[in-house]
Amino acid sequence: MSDPTSSTYHPTRPPSLNYSIASGRRRFWVALFFVLIFIEAGVLPLILFYSIRWGAHLSNTTNLAIITAVVGTYSSYKFAVRSWYLFISDRGHQRRPLGAGRFGPDAFTIQISIAMTAFFAPLIVGSSLTPASVHLVAISLSCFIIVFCFPLLITSFWPHKLKMPFRVSSMPPWTGLPPAVYTIVEDIVAVDGGGCVEFRQAWRIRYEHSTRMRHIIRVTSLCWGATGCALAAALIAIAWNTSDDVGYGLGWGIPWIWAIVSAAITVWWVRKQLGRESREWAQPGAHVVLNLHIRQSAEEEKVARRVSMQNETHRGA
């Protein structure tokens, strides 16, 4: 079990996460990923739809068939690479959730799989009909957003109250779930970002010991979940009650504006809160421990001790 009594923080400084997106070429690869995803599921669907519709004057069936053939190529490749890291790679044990077996998926894998299914279902069905349904294809991104953001919303309403009969990332069955942003950050950084089990341990320690970090995670979960579900529901209603051109353009364009603006606000706000966390760390109530009750193997316990020792080293420095 994770140990809430261990001295893993400095009296005047929060525990280090031992990870930086600015190190090496991480910032470049993160930027490249988002640019390619934006092109695949944002730019191309809009350019192809209107250029083929207004320029080539092809039928909606042909138009949407071309778009369906293009969308999902890069994201499917990245999902396959992620699965390789988790389940097949010889070093997969270093990236898997704490306490999970070889074929134990992390929460993000399950969440993104269900969301991608919700995305591709209306896309494929809508383009396969004769004639094709522009309205159905227009709600693809909105369906993805609702399925992805709903767990963020409900876990932020009842943090550490909802329990599942199966493992959720590092959280054992029947353990109160933290707001979903916690597992999203843990899984993405550990698997896709190469932070591995060291980051999972450092992330656990920081969350367990910092009331400010728990506040950050809950607020970001709530804001992304609430705004995403509300926006997606509105876009679905608009898609079915407007013309093809308007519904399709809004359905594939507005979600990206929402995502970019929300990401910018999140980065600004989180940086502000982290600065506040650091300034207030020595004050009473800043590091009240909340035990996540995470079960760990012997090897993972060794990593936890090593992370704690690194925090002690920072303390000495």
UniProtKB/TrEMBL annotation:
PANTHER family referenced in this protein's UniProt entry, alphabetically: AMINO ACID PERMEASE_ SLC12A DOMAIN-CONTAINING PROTEIN (PTHR42024)
Keyword Membrane attributed: yes
TM helices/strands, residue ranges: 28-52, 64-87, 108-129, 135-158, 216-240, 252-270
Keywords assigned: Membrane, Transmembrane, Transmembrane helix
Name of the protein described by the UniProt record: Uncharacterized protein
Taxonomic superkingdom: Eukaryota
